[in-house]
Amino acid sequence: MTSAQLFNGSPLDSSIWRICLCGIFGCLLHSGNAAPIIHSGLKQLEYRGYDSVGVATINDKGLFLKKDAGKIDEVHAMLDLDDLPGSIGIGHTRWATHGAPLKINAHPHTDCSQRIAVVHNGIIENFSILKETLLNKEHEFVSRTDTEVIPHLIEEEIIAGANLEDAVRTAVRQLEGSYALAVISAEEKDKIVCVRNQSPLIIGESVNGLFFSSDIPALLPHTNKVVYLENGEMAVLSREGLVIKRIEDGSIVSRKLTELSLTMEMAQKKGYPHFMLKEIYEQPETLGNALRLQRNYLDLIATFLDRAEELYLVACGTSYNACLAGSYMFSSLCNLATIPVIASEFIDQYGGAVGIQSTVLALSQSGETADVLHAIDYSRYHAATILGLTNTLGSTLTRVSRAYVCQQTGPEIGVAASKTYTGQLIVMAQLALRLSKIRGKVSQDAIDELEARLAQIPDVVDKIINGQAERVKEIAKKYSDARCYYFLGRGISNSTAAEGRLKLLELAYIPSIAYPAGESKHGPISLIEKGFPVVFICPRDSTRKAVISNIMEMKARGASIICILDETDKEMMDLADDYVPIPTNIPEILSPIPYSVPLQLLAYYSSVEKGIDPDQPRNLAKSVTVL
Ligand code: F6R
After folding, report:
1. Ligand 1 nearest-atom number relative to CA 371
2. Are the CB atoms for 344 and 317 separated by under 8 Å?
3. Which H helix or E strand runs over 297?
4. Which residues have C-beta atoms less than 6 Å from ligand 1?
5. Residue 478 belongs to what H/E stretch?
6. What is the pLDDT of residues 562-598, one digit of tens each?
7. pTM recorded for the entire structure
8. If 0-12 CB within 10 Å is exposed, 13-18 middle and 19+ buried, where does residue 444 land?
């Protein structure tokens, strides 16, 4: 499941489109039409995706379906999603993570007879093998999604004589991957069958019927009585009520409904006080998603990078800090010198040099930042090759890039980047690894080792968030009156220092300075006085000894030393006034990912400590679309 495409003037429909975010919602009502309820449920789930939408309902006359690409309001204005008959239905709102959002790829997907409809959130990893088998049995496919195999597998079982419930159970046992899905059939007009494996699915019950949803907020307008499906379980919603069964053996699961006491806002933030904190805590999952990018697309970008005679890494703000980290990764793994440039400086600084020999890799989570697009327009005009890394499929960056990769972090609501930053870092690391393989600059053993460590990064980040948040909160409290902070690092940790500084100043309004630690004695040290907080980013890597010298210099002048350090580094702990331990054995090029997490938390808690809203710091916008 990934997202990289060649661009040749129009979106190229050459790839398999797969979805891993998205929201599903549906209901079986005792009275009234299902479609308007599904429409409003999908609106509540819009934060999960909004590039295409669809609803299917059933009644005595059969199955009815409307879907198209576009935001829910746009599609509703075109098709009137409320105007579908029947009291039972399913719906889907999509966040495409691969390929252009088109009507044929919007859910629900149907079987050959168009009597079975399926909505799906997740990834079917073995879909191509299943599809081949189904094609051999003369099933007809219309989309490029992995999901479409599901209605056809169910159709096979129904043709063989199974009822809907058994057909779904047999079909899903053939699936590998993650899925929350819901199925309706025109042959069984009083039933919805839902299944869960890895992707979230919650069932709600009210006096007027049964509901299912990817998330709580969409259920709350109807009921606060819910039951969470577990992996490997299916729920059969019918006029007789709700029955939960194990997929494995069909045995009944007895589970009571839980009564929630949540407001809508609390539910949207999943119980976290702010979106920013929620997004920080989501990183183990979003990093995991970014690790499932399809290799061939990373290879495609890596091939372009390999051909580059000169490579500019262009971005603004946090995305620029990811470029900085990337420049160290490409250098150490691929022997490739790159030029990280702040987008608004690009034309003045390098405009005269840009030409056909240049490649520009632009990083922009929104894909709409005006400074980045301006630099790209200029570069295209001068015949440079444009590559993109973004979190927003269909954004301008994807349209102007020769090839791009989508990091699959999902929507980020907090204005300050957190999960999108680590998402950019993990994609850059994968690109560097791919390029390294192409160039043969690092031994296979070293690559294998790095790949193994990369796979552990989501767990490492999970450990940091869950183990160290309280400690970071205390540090934020202790230094909340600081007039200024320093963030210092060497090597690749320079990028982490720069990001820590940006987060703190934009969220807590504390003037902060980031410097390469080795440079700090050439000027910045003059600011140091007793109690001045200096954050050192000090993984156990090749820079460690030199960093210790820099710590000693600062300490001698009365600075308060805060170290983000390796959990085994006792010597460094003794030097620090405060420290945050990071799991050991993190390879140097991957360290910006875990080491930036405590700094996100520091900025978040410092902001809260000062009574600032971390989700909406003053004067800032999520996407800066002016030059
Ligand atoms: C800081 C932050 C901004 C963005 C910058 C670029 O927390 O979010 O600095 O990184 O505005 O945005 P994108 O990545 O959308 O181009």
Report:
1. 16
2. no
3. helix 295-307
4. 316-319, 364-366, 369, 372, 416-417, 502, 506, 623-624
5. helix 444-478
6. 999 999 999 999 999 999 999 999 999 999 999 999 9
7. 0.73
8. exposed
